[in-house]
From TrEMBL:
Residues 37-71, 96-158 form a coiled coil. The lineage of its organism: Bacteria, Bacillati, Actinomycetota, Actinomycetes, Pseudonocardiales. InterPro entries: CT398_CC_hairpin, Oxidative_Scav/Glycosyltrans, Zf-RING_7. The keyword Phosphoprotein does not apply. Residues 203-237 form the C4-type zinc ribbon domain. Residues 14-192 form the CT398-like coiled coil hairpin domain. The keyword Protease does not apply. Keywords: Coiled coil. It comes from Pseudonocardia ammonioxydans. This is Uncharacterized protein.
């Protein structure tokens, strides 16, 4: 294949643009904000789960407190009734003794219920503090997601702007390159390597390797418009005048 040396030199510009596009793509894929956002979103999920657990526990305790309040009220009502009967007239000694025994039992029952209620209320207070902390953590985590998302979007916008400029430059170069030369370049680039490099003294600018003297002699004896390839990496070797 043959191509004017000036045209071949444009491949170096194209390779530089492609290298920059590759760098921008890698940078976009590996923005630190991506990992930070993943961690922040996990923090939100963990905080949300903590809120749900605390809310569930608080709800259970509230129901237990309400149940005990009903039980205590029931005991008090029964005791008030017994006190009224005991204070009334026309009851015998046996009935009075039975009422007093029931009142003693009710008093003990009320004491047990109130002690249990107090313990649950103390636990409910602790769970309430835990719930407040979990909600504050969730709000903080959600704020972090918003903040990191904003930074990520800003970084991606900057990279997109750079990529747009480089893609425009690439399109301009591709437009003026001969189809056969461009196809050769793209074939090499398709292997995931630098497709063109300048020959600098005895080193390939694409793979940076020192080239064999015999091969270098063949390159230097080739015509200026001959398209030659590096014997090591296969990239198009662009020779200076």
């Amino acid at each position: 294949m043959k191509a004017d040396p000036t045209t071949q030199a444009k491949l170096l510009q194209l390779a530089e643009v492609d290298t920059e596009l590759g760098r921008l793509a890698h940078q976009s894929k590996n923005l630190p904000e991506h990992q930070q956002l993943t961690e922040a979103e996990q923090r939100v999920r963990d905080a949300h789960d903590a809120v749900v657990r605390a809310e569930t526990r608080a709800g259970d305790l509230d129901r237990d407190i309400a149940r005990l309040e009903r039980d205590v009220d029931g005991v008090r009502t029964r005791a008030e009734r017994d006190h009224a009967m005991l204070a009334g007239s026309g009851i015998g000694a046996k009935q009075a003794s039975e009422l007093q025994h029931e009142l003693d039992t009710l008093a003990r029952r009320q004491g047990v219920l109130e002690e249990e209620q107090l313990g649950i209320m103390e636990e409910r207070e602790a769970v309430g503090a835990e719930l407040d902390h979990a909600r504050a953590e969730l709000a903080s985590a959600e704020e972090q997601v918003v903040e990191v998302t904003g930074r990520r979007d800003g970084a991606e916008a900057d990279l997109d702007a750079s990529r747009t400029g480089r893609e425009r430059a690439r399109a301009e170069l591709v437009e003026v390159l001969p189809a056969e030369l461009l196809a050769d370049y793209e074939r090499i680039r398709g292997r995931g390597q630098v497709a063109a490099g300048a020959l600098r003294e005895s080193r390939c600018g694409a793979c940076r390797l020192e080239l064999d003297r015999t091969f270098l002699g063949q390159v230097r004896s080739a015509g200026d418009d001959d398209v030659v390839h590096c014997e090591e990496c296969g990239a198009i070797l662009v020779r200076g005048k």
